[in-house]
Design brief:
Layout (H helix, E strand, L loop, with lengths): L26 H7 L19 H19 L1 H10 L3 H4 L5 H8 L24 H12 L7 H30 L7 H5 L2 H6 L5 H16 L3 H14 L7 H11 L2 H25 L1 H13 L7 H8 L6 H25 L6 H15 L8 H11 L3 H26 L9 H27 L5 H4 L49
Helix pairs in contact: 2-7, 5-7, 6-11, 7-10, 10-11, 10-18, 11-13, 12-13, 12-16, 12-17, 13-14, 16-17, 17-18, 17-20, 19-20
């Protein structure tokens, strides 16, 4: 007979927390679950199927992305090329086919190095986005009419952006290990589907989502590298370092914050320095364009400008908009350091990016992509998420109907200026509503659906379960919270991402 292992020689099994099924704690999810047979019962066998939550979330995301491509069919079949207003009345506009020729890709010009004809002397996108656009141009057949090439260019970009959408879905589903089904918030978000192929924002969104996943896994350097790459594709991911600074300050995790900052700076420099050195004017174009750009669509600044007989100058707005962002960040800092319980990283990440969106001098409809993954992690509650998404869909339709009105001549087909102002207000109010709910969760952590399930900060990495080291005000006398569910896995048990719906 084989000897029985002693207690000392047997590895200790740490019980893995049970997955959180949304159909049991979210009324909207429970109602939606009735469409596929209702919530799972007590005797269901979980984990024995290939259909794990993450795989389902990814397939749903790809399916919804494909529906978004179908929604662009009227433009693909001619509206991009034969009529300025028809691409707006069909709400299928995309920058991608227009910029194939407009930014020199059809002529083989190299972004940042080759000067463009006309007023737009260089490509006005960050370096990593420019690389993405150039790779798509390499994969686009150069034969046939320019219309045919533009159609191919859009399809190639759509395929590459679909990969980015799948990455976002996987990362969101795995960031909160006990809540993989929250990834469906991203996969099924209507505004996400409608705006995915308007521009190239999904590249930065995917890198940011991957960075969030790395931080949740405790990999500070990998988080920094991915965040630096995301910032090299779009400016907004850089803002996440602010909330991370506050949280690491409160928890005393300076070493991990330092690793994250170092990784981000190095990654950003590796991408940008070669272009900045060899093509300085082209590299500066993005920053000059962002500074010189006037008040534009989607912002409350536009409402003020169109309602005023003496609108603010671009220089004044360039001064006031950063001041408003800074004031919002100060408020977030005070909230973070005085909250009764240290906020979750995803909550603060959502708030700081929302602050930029609300105060910026332009809000392009695809900017909603920045917030969708963060919203799914910050407030994974279907009711609030769908209220916000309904507001964003209304804005999506509003901007295209307004552009149809302004480009249809005397026919005036579409939405007049006052109607467009209402659409902007709806977008702003919807975003403010979700911000208010997140702030309430921070001030009243017992209302936070993530913490109601017994978690502390699943997206917080080293912050998850850490005790406070620095707080302000009366919170300093509050009991420390260390509700930590460690990452250890019980032998022979399934991954939490294989849990029930």
């Amino acid at each position: 007979m084989f000897p029985m292992p002693s207690a000392e020689s047997t590895p200790m099994r740490v019980h893995e927390p049970e997955p959180v099924p949304p159909t049991k704690n979210d009324p909207v999810a429970a109602a939606g679950g009735e469409l596929i047979g209702g919530p799972l019962g007590r005797r269901v066998l979980v984990g024995a199927s290939w259909w794990t939550p993450v795989r389902i979330v990814v397939l749903v995301a790809i399916g919804m992305f494909a529906l978004g491509l179908v929604q662009k069919a009227p433009c693909y079949n001619g509206a991009w090329f034969f009529g300025a207003s028809s691409q707006y009345t069909h709400a299928c506009y995309s920058d991608i086919p227009h910029l194939y020729q407009g930014r020199g890709f059809a002529d083989g010009l190299v972004p940042y190095f080759d000067k463009l004809p006309g007023d737009m002397d260089y490509l006005e996108y960050p370096v990593l986005t420019g690389v993405f656009m150039e790779v798509a141009a390499w994969l686009t057949p150069g034969s046939g009419s320019i219309q045919h090439q533009e159609q191919w260019y859009w399809m190639v970009n759509a395929g590459m952006l679909m990969v980015c959408a799948a990455v976002v879905a996987v990362c969101v589903a795995r960031t909160h290990a006990r809540r993989p089904w929250d990834g469906l918030l991203v996969a099924l978000a209507p505004a996400y589907v409608l705006t995915a192929t308007i521009n190239w924002d999904l590249l930065a969104v995917a890198l940011t989502a991957a960075a969030m996943l790395m931080w949740a896994r405790g990999r500070s350097v990998a988080f920094g590298v991915l965040l630096g790459l995301a910032t090299a594709a779009k400016f907004y991911p850089f803002l996440l370092l602010g909330p991370l600074l506050l949280l690491c300050w409160r928890a005393g995790k300076w070493r991990d914050f330092g690793k994250a900052v170092a990784g981000a700076v190095v990654a950003w420099l590796v991408v940008n320095v070669p272009v900045a050195f060899f093509a300085t004017d082209g590299w500066l174009k993005f920053y000059r364009f962002s500074h010189d750009r006037g008040v534009d669509f989607g912002s409350f600044w536009l409402i003020m400008a169109q309602k005023s007989s003496h609108p603010l100058s671009t220089d004044t707005v360039n001064l006031l908009a950063p001041v408003l962002v800074l004031l919002c960040c100060v408020g977030i800092a005070v909230l973070t350091l005085t909250a009764p319980r240290r906020p979750r990283f995803a909550q603060l990440a959502f708030l700081v990016v929302a602050a930029l969106i609300l105060t910026n001098k332009v809000y392009s409809p695809q900017y909603v992509l920045w917030l969708v993954p963060l919203a799914a992690l910050a407030r994974p509650r279907w009711r609030d998420f769908l209220i916000w998404q309904a507001c964003e869909v209304m804005y999506f339709l509003g901007i295209w109907m307004y552009l149809a009105y302004t480009t249809s001549g005397d026919a005036h087909k579409g939405l007049p200026t006052d109607g467009y102002h209402v659409a902007i207000a709806v977008h702003l109010l919807g975003t403010l509503y979700l911000c208010a709910v997140v702030v309430r969760d921070i001030l009243m952590p017992e209302r936070d659906v993530v913490r109601q399930a017994g978690d502390d900060d699943p997206s917080g990495g080293v912050l998850d379960g850490a005790e406070d080291r620095f707080v302000l005000g009366e919170t300093a006398h509050a009991p420390r919270h260390a509700a930590h569910h460690g990452p250890a896995v019980e032998w022979g048990h399934q991954n939490p991402a294989d849990g029930p719906l």
